[in-house]
Design a protein that fits this description.
The structure is a single chain. The protein has 178 residues and is an all-alpha fold. The longest helix is centred in the first third of the chain and has 23 residues.
Length: 178
Amino acid sequence: MRGTSVRTVGAFCALLASYSAQAQTAAQSAAPPCVSADVAKAGLLAAAPAVFHVVEQSCRPMLKDDAFLLSARGKAMIERYEDAGAKAFEQSPDAFAKATQAPGTFTRQSDIEAIIEPMLGSKLGKVDAKTCTFIDRLLGLLEPLPPENFVGIFTLIFEAMGSEKNKTPVAICKPDGN
């Protein structure tokens, strides 16, 4: 069970920070330059609403009626992330592009959604009820956190994991800039 939970958290981290096919191609051709933790957080926050929508839509058929994502609290959480994501994109429109190494590709927040939703939808089509239940429980536990703290946790996880050999979807610079 522990291995499954760890893999599921890893998968959820990857979902939260998923990036465009252009970014994946760029990462394969050269070691991606790192971005600051603040840029990574802004990019993740701008992407979070699309990720949550895909997770909710993909997992809905597998969740019980009393699941967090289907509750009023779950819907309110998604709305909070929509507001925070729009604000993050407004304040730093190039953060997602920098974090994914695809500068200039995303001029509106809807551009991010247009990339994330189909890509994640195809990946989540392969998840099972157990994974959806785990993600639902995880989101329920993290729901009280402000959106900035929520994405801050994932940024910290990516920082701790390092960016060697593309272990994380976002290469975050160490505080000294490397």
